[in-house]
From TrEMBL:
The chain crosses the membrane at residues 27-52, 64-85, 91-115, 136-154, 160-180, 192-217. PANTHER family: GLYCINE BETAINE/L-PROLINE TRANSPORT SYSTEM PERMEASE PROTEIN PROW, POSSIBLE OSMOPROTECTANT (GLYCINE BETAINE_CARNITINE_CHOLINE_L-PROLINE) TRANSPORT INTEGRAL MEMBRANE PROTEIN ABC TRANSPORTER PROZ. This is Osmoprotectant transport system permease protein. Belongs to the binding-protein-dependent transport system permease family. Keywords: Membrane, Transmembrane, Transmembrane helix, Transport. Residues 23-209 form the ABC transmembrane type-1 domain. It is a multi-pass membrane protein. CDD domains: TM_PBP2.
Length: 242
């Protein structure tokens, strides 16, 4: 395999099937699924964390849906809607749906856990100052929950990015085309290049979320997290002969 040579070939970087175009398609599927996941999971997680109702049922159901085989669910949804939907939507709807099934559980869990585990002292102080329940949620619990929420969103994004390659199985574009077409052509260099591009895109999102966390999470919360990690007891190291 000559993967560097594949990337050095200018023909792979131009046209509708080139790397930039396929990265663009991959990003569209990723951001669409992530946006829908956020719209579903964040309000639901806030409600569960705020009221403490239905947490086990909703989170358990979300995780059960997440356990569905992605490719099988994609093909099933495609077959179910193919008779009633036409155009690109017949491919885009099932692809987006299976990616949303992956994205909702970690965002939901992060939001729910972050709201419930908000600093009780800060919540009590806000209540003593006369804040309403809604004000406590927006001004105290949500900022305290931000680290866990961002962690859930980061996890969801990485899962969606790595799984969006399944779009190629129903005829859509994206980085999965390199993997699927390379397999059909027995071109393992092309398959490897596609996998590397997906990995690089995932790393780019990882770096982006690290930067977002640095600029959006309160320094006080970052210090408290660091202090809690440092204060944990170190595991005992066995001494030979004892």
């Amino acid at each position: 395999m000559n993967v560097p040579g594949w990337f050095a070939d200018s023909s792979h970087w131009t046209g509708p099937d080139g790397v930039p175009a396929q990265v663009g398609h991959h990003l569209v599927y990723t951001l669409l699924a992530l946006g829908i996941s956020l719209v579903i999971a964040v309000p639901l997680g806030m409600f569960i964390g705020y009221t403490g109702r239905g947490g086990a049922l909703v989170v358990g159901s979300a995780n059960a849906l997440r356990a569905l085989p992605t490719l099988g669910a994609l093909v099933l949804l495609f077959l179910l809607i193919s008779s009633s939907v036409s155009g690109q939507a017949v491919y885009l709807i099932p692809t987006t749906a299976v990616l949303v099934l992956l994205g909702v559980p970690p965002i939901l869990a992060g939001t729910y856990a972050g709201i419930q585990n908000a600093d009780s002292g800060a919540v009590g102080a806000a209540r003593a100052m006369g804040y309403t329940r809604a004000q406590i949620l927006i001004r105290v619990q949500l900022p305290c929950a931000l680290p866990l929420m961002l962690s859930g969103i980061r996890s969801a994004t990485l899962q969606i990015v790595s799984t969006a390659t399944v779009a190629a199985y129903v005829g859509l574009q994206g980085l999965g085309r390199f993997i699927l077409d390379g397999r059909a052509e027995a071109d393992f260099t092309k398959m490897t290049a596609g996998a590397l591009l997906v990995a690089v895109l995932a790393i780019a999102f990882e770096v982006l979320f690290a930067l977002v966390g640095r600029f959006t999470i309160s320094p006080g919360l970052r210090r408290s997290e660091t202090s809690s990690i440092r204060s944990r007891p170190s595991p005992a190291i066995p001494v030979p002969g004892t």
